[in-house]
From TrEMBL:
Keyword annotations from UniProtKB, A to Z: Cell inner membrane, Cell membrane, Membrane, Transmembrane, Transmembrane helix, Transport
Natural source organism: Marinomonas piezotolerans
GO molecular function terms attached to this record: transmembrane transporter activity
Annotated protein name in UniProt: TRAP transporter large permease protein
Similarity comment: family membership: Belongs to the TRAP transporter large permease family.
Amino acid sequence: MEALILFGMVLTLLFIGLPVGISLGLSSILFITFFSHDSLSSVAISLFGAGQHYTLLAIPFFVLASSFMSTGGVAKRLINFAIASVGHFRGGLAMASVLACMMFAALSGSSPATVVAIGTIAIAGMRQVGYSKEFASGIIANAGTLGILIPPSIVMVVYAAATDVSVGRMFLAGVIPGLMAGGMLMLAIYVVARIKNLPAEEWKGFGHLVRGGKEAGWGLFLIVIIMGGIYGGAFTPTEAAVVAAVYSIFIALFVYRDMGPLKGQTWTNDSDAPAARVGFNGTVYGVSLFLVWEIMSFFAFANSDSFTGGARALVGLALGIVTALFYISKRGQHLDTGLVGCMAAGIPIWGRNLSLMVRGFFPALFGDETRKTMLEGTKTTVMLMFIIANALLFAHTLSAERIPQAITEWMLGVGFNWFTFLIAVNILLLIGGQFMEPSGLLVIVAPVVFPIAMELGVDPIHLGIIMVVNMEIGMITPPIGLNLFVTSGITGMSLARVVKAAMPFVAVLFVFLILVTYIPALSTALPYAIMGPEIVQ
């Protein structure tokens, strides 16, 4: 009876138009006041505990990293690299859009951010080469959902906080399903492209592929820093979020220079002598390799007594020097200037750029574009944290009334097993995902289904991935599918047209959901191999 009253109040408040966070919090407070033996002081304790939750501290920093990586320059570089990789296949530009969404998902952890950043550029590009607006929009709406499945994922952080499972294991568990979902979407596009005779881009050779990877490299290296740092033992997922935010700010402002006072300032000018450009580029590659080596070797050998930090630095320095000399010798062989002369000629370019960065450091950090980006990230963070705090209060109310335990006993009593239980979970989440924001729905449902899953022997990490995939589908199903609204906004199409365009590819994700639900190894193989199984106390 208590469960019906509590859920009835939540649904009533939602249907009269109150926001999700307020509906959860207000229904919990009203229930505790009039129907529960619990004290109202538990409300304050629960809300305070949400602010003190260490795992949830990762959310604002991942949001901030996403905000700075969502600049047009980063997205454009990822799309160019994706086109160089798969654009030569039939329907290659559409497949490249999916690949770009997969890469951007690994930078942002957010589905709407992925749709906005990639869709704004990719849909226009597909339209120019002959794709229909509906086809392009349907692809981006679906591929954008990978933002919450491919790690790092904000929704995975929320699930980990709600159920006290490992964020690191959740991130690992999302790798294989994320790649598989993207691959299935690309395969579906290829089949449609063969049937409809869609265009293919010209293959421009491996040199074009290498150039695309080089341009996107600093953005993609964020994935290495996050995943390598976590699983190399250098820092926790929450600390990885902080590192990701700082790295994203530095790359956007000072390396790619897509925003701030250095926007439009190139690293080399046309007026620079050819020998100076060759020398500068060669030393840039050398320094870059040295920095990458130092970071990667730290992740791999931080706990090694035999391979010390000094030894790693010497190896990195040798690799950097060899790389610089090789590049300069290859690129400068038609010049009259020797190796040393080219390197010396490049020093003024280094001086000019370092001077620009030093003089623009504080104006870049406190400039209008930076403040605007941080403000947008703060708004998103406040919205998410408000929903999560109230959802955790709702979860506390459920636990205090032993509602999950009562539901568990009922389901076991009527003969549910793990197979039928997962069917019920999928149906519940697919329906709920049509009406609620993923993080809020997940924090409501997870405390209810988690004890049942543990009783039936379902792996907690496997359950988390099932829930995340359901949240994906919820984001592209009406009436509240967030990706549908975002896609409609960036294309100017009506919501009904976007829904119709997205539906064929939603069928692919439904097949993917069935595979993920009933093949647990897709979710558990990687975390088991690297970190071992999750132990639930």
